[in-house]
């Protein structure tokens, strides 16, 4: 943050000097605190579903650090003069269902009057200090695994343009409201050694891979043909239903990417499509990649191998193939 003098602390494991999903602070040899906050403007017409999605999105950053959410607080900006209070009640109901599912406890919150409705959570979680999953320790040879299909930004644009079908909306809502807890429980239960982890949100799949590449000082190959997409989303991308954020993301990272000639424009748009409540990106030793995907599937979750760490690169680099 430009111009600000921010002091560090010996107990700080992850702070502002290394861009990651959440801050992590060591309390003692057994426990580190994970703290994060996130809030959104509505992404669906249904307040209940929006609550579920916003909660899943906020909780995700704790899972991305390998942790377990413990307590949460509501953050609400609400246009009380222009919007019926039932909208807020339904949103909170949806959020509470996800908070309950996560095992966390709602302990408070704050509401301000605002012309635009926004909702999210501040989340506090815990993790063993030696088991923190940063985005900066991927190793050469690792397989990269993704746990949700991509395309929610382009799908939202198509939904707003009223060209998405009912089944498309249903799938997008299901994907965005799914907690990223599954991958963390599989990692813990089957003792997988994960080298790096992050979640896919505003920078898109390629952008968050680039954050991992920069943090880990590695070159990553992204195999676009292996990336799972929401149904029909490629059609919508081809029709130009691409949010401005996707183009901004690609421009922002253009110096450290190379795109294979075979990769279609629409596919590239999907790789940089900003995601709401996207999946986890997990960097695991190559010999364990397939086993991890299998364990995810037999545990009722989804996972795909979509890339690999190929070699060192000081600036971090992404080959989109
Ligand atoms: Co994140
Ligand atoms: Co976040
Ligand atoms: Co992480």
Can you describe what's shown?
- There is one protein chain.
- The protein is α+β, with helices and mostly antiparallel strands and 321 residues long.
- It has 2 domains: 12-130, PurM-like, N-terminal domain (60s Ribosomal Protein L30, Chain: A, 2-Layer Sandwich); 134-320, PurM-like C-terminal domain (Phosphoribosyl-aminoimidazole Synthetase, Chain A, domain 2, Alpha-Beta Complex).
- The chain is 36% helix and 26% strand.
- The chain has 10 helices and 13 strands.
- It has helices at residues 47-64, 85-102, 152-160, 166-177, 181-189, 204-216, 233-238, 244-252, 265-271, 286-298, and strands at residues 12-14, 23-26, 32-40, 68-78, 105-113, 118-127, 143-146, 194-199, 218-222, 257-259, 280-284, 304-312, 317-320.
- The strands form 2 sheets. The protein has a 7-stranded mixed beta sheet with strand order 8-11-7-12-9-13-10, sandwiched between helices. A 6-stranded mixed beta sheet has the order 1-2-3-6-4-5, with helices on one face.
- Strand 2 (23-26) and strand 3 (32-40) form a beta hairpin.
- Helix 1 runs parallel beside helix 2 and helix 3 (152-160) packs across helix 4 (166-177).
- The longest helix is centred in the first third of the chain and has 18 residues, at 47-64.
- It is globular, with a radius of gyration of 19 Å.
- The mean pLDDT is 96.
- It binds cobalt (II) ion (CO) (3 copies).
- Residues 21, 38, 61, 201 line the site of one cobalt (II) ion (CO).
